[in-house]
Amino acid sequence: MASEAEFLKGYDPGAYPAVAVTVDVVALTIRDGELCVLLVERAEHPFAGRRALPGGFVRGEGLDDAALRELQEETALGKVHLEQLRTYGDPGRDPRMRVFSVAYLAFAPGLPEPRAGSDAAGAAWVPVEQATGLAFDHDTILADGLDRARSKLEYTPLATAFVGDEFTIGELRQVYASVWGEELHAGNFHRKVLSVPGFVESTGATTARGGERGGPRAKLYRAGDAQLLHPALLRPAREDGVR
Amino acid sequence: MASEAEFLKGYDPGAYPAVAVTVDVVALTIRDGELCVLLVERAEHPFAGRRALPGGFVRGEGLDDAALRELQEETALGKVHLEQLRTYGDPGRDPRMRVFSVAYLAFAPGLPEPRAGSDAAGAAWVPVEQATGLAFDHDTILADGLDRARSKLEYTPLATAFVGDEFTIGELRQVYASVWGEELHAGNFHRKVLSVPGFVESTGATTARGGERGGPRAKLYRAGDAQLLHPALLRPAREDGVR
DNA sequence: TCGAGTTAATCTCAGCGTGAGGACAACATG
DNA sequence: CATGTTGTCCTCACGCTGAGATTAACTCGA
Predict the structure, then answer these.
(1) Cα dist. B146→A226, B28, B114, B158, B234 in Å?
(2) Which of A35, A100, A206, B48 has the least C-beta neighbours within 10 A?
């Protein structure tokens, strides 16, 4: 029986049908109280001229690194939360060849306008309700990403990835309201956030002045060290239908 | 500018470095009240002789179909729940070439002994605590799969995938106890399961006789049509540590 | 045949988190 | 200065929770 070293020496990677692996990123941010996703306009075939999620072929790097690279090609970003969403591999989802796409989900605080990347005619933050008719199966990927984001707000401190290093409880509440698409009771939200150990910790400081239209100075907080929220901030008013 | 059809005609899939995509399956079942995972012993290099998760290269099929095929090569199974876990693609995780593995999670009711498959010297159900030292990065994949399974029990009717078509509340409680590794309060569990709309529905029948060591005949239920549990069956006694 | 042990199913009770609403002070705007 | 807005805190009623006790049905061994 051949040793493992001898086996590997005689192994021919080209003996199998060619497949490719890409990463596509669902990058979310909040602009003017609205949940937005980063889209590019494809410059090349296939789907030239159509809007798509930023992404590209994986090179000699790890998957997480590839997703980060693709994201940085489109927009200048500082702190960003990145996690794998799932992988899409139906035969025929890409007309060129068999392509598997590992989708990622990214969250970042409010960002400036993106810059055009190499393989994209333009990039822009688009409100999620207007992000339809995307190339490939990106409509499906986006929908899956939104589902994941909405449910992760409930039981993880993910919302802190959407705001700056220091933030007020009101800003945090705006994040939940924007992602969930519904208003939240300010008093109850305040009580619940502060009652979850490790969610936020006080900086002792307050904002320099009150809100846009009045009100007292709000206390400032930063993200705590919790990885999971106990108890969770459950999302209200779900109909007990077929879910 | 060339049309999309002309572009595709001149496209050469072989112009990129060769990569491969595999599926690996974390198949879980409960045998004698113990949570077990399906493992195979690898017959060929690399990692010949080591235990591994069942899996193999994806052919011209979809990812879900590939996972189902790999599973059926190892064990005879009837009803099975299958879902994608995540994708592992670190360079170097397979010594042959760049291999991306799409991991799947499978749940099935108590099954008979598995059969040996094509590329496996043998297959066996192994209690999860004894499933260590696996080939490739399968230790990591298994750990991720167990995490997912444990948390999905809380908010989905997944536990019904571990039992037969008709089951008692006590059998369902055994599933939760086995997967979570802790005993549950029988009275509270009973009340909570029946209070969740769509989780289980009564068949009207009861078991033919009482339990092994006595007790009344238990009522029989089958799985309901709920996709998500409201309210969730939260897992008790989590320490509020660094989670 | 009868008692002991086991189990399914139900009930009770104190405690906690929840949603809803209100109170109040601090602040911006006109 | 008057008015409206906002952050923070409080109260209250309701529902779910965990823990324990209770009842009835059943198996097994003496």
Answers:
(1) 21, 9, 21, 13, 17
(2) A206
Confirm whether any atom of chain C, the nucleic acid strand, is less than 7 Å from CB of A238: no
Q: Do domains A15-151 and A156-241 have the same CATH topology?
A: no
Which residues, at least 6 apart from B220, have a Cβ–Cβ distance to it below 8 Å? B166, B167, B168, B202, B203, B204, B205, B206, B207
Q: In the prediction, which pLDDT does A116 show? A: 54
Contact yes or no for A37/A30 (Cβ under 8 A): no
CA separation, residue A149 to residues A37, A206, A212 (Å): 12, 29, 29
DSSP character string of A98-163: EEEEEEEEEE-SS-------SSEEEEEEEEGGG--S-STTHHHHHHHHHHHHHHHHHHSGGGGGGS
Read off the pLDDT of each residue in A18-29 and give the average, rounded to a whole number.
Answer: 95
Bases on strand D under 7 Å from any protein CB: 4-11, 16-21, 24-28
Chain B contact set for A121 (CB, 8 A):
none
A12: phi then psi, degrees, rounded to nearest 5 = -110, 105
pLDDT surpasses 50 at B1: no
Half-sphere exposure of A76 (CA within 13 A, CB side): 3
Domain boundaries, chain B: 15-151, 156-241
Helix (H) or strand (E) holding B101: strand B98-107
- Eight-state DSSP code of residue B77: -
Residue B175 in this model has a pLDDT that exceeds 80 = yes
- Determine contact, residues B189/B173, Cβ cutoff 8 Å: yes
Given this structure, which CATH class describes domain B156-241?
Answer: mainly alpha
pLDDT digits (tens, 9 = 90+) for A177-200: 999 999 999 999 999 999 999 999
Residue B214 pLDDT grade (very low, low, confident, very high; cuts 50, 70, 90):
confident
Cα gap A13→A42, rounded to integer Å: 31
Bigger pLDDT: A137 or A4? Answer: A137
Provide the whole-model pTM: 0.91
Distance from C-alpha of A92 to C-alpha of A88, rounded to nearest angstrom: 11
B237 CA, D20 C1': Å apart: 18
Q: Are B100 and A21 an interchain contact pair (Cβ–Cβ within 8 Å)?
A: yes
- Mean of pLDDT values over A93-101: 94
> B171 pLDDT exceeds 50?
yes
- Smallest CA–CA distance, residue A111 to chain B, in Å, is 29
A72 close to A158: Cβ distance less than 8 angstroms: no
> What pLDDT shows up at residue A5?
59
Q: Which of A19, A45, A84 sits opposite B20 (nearest CB)?
A: A19
H or E, element range at B87? strand B81-88
Mind listing the pLDDT tens digit for each residue in A76-90?
A: 777 899 999 999 999
The vertex-B99 CA angle with B97 and B105, nearest 5°, equals 155
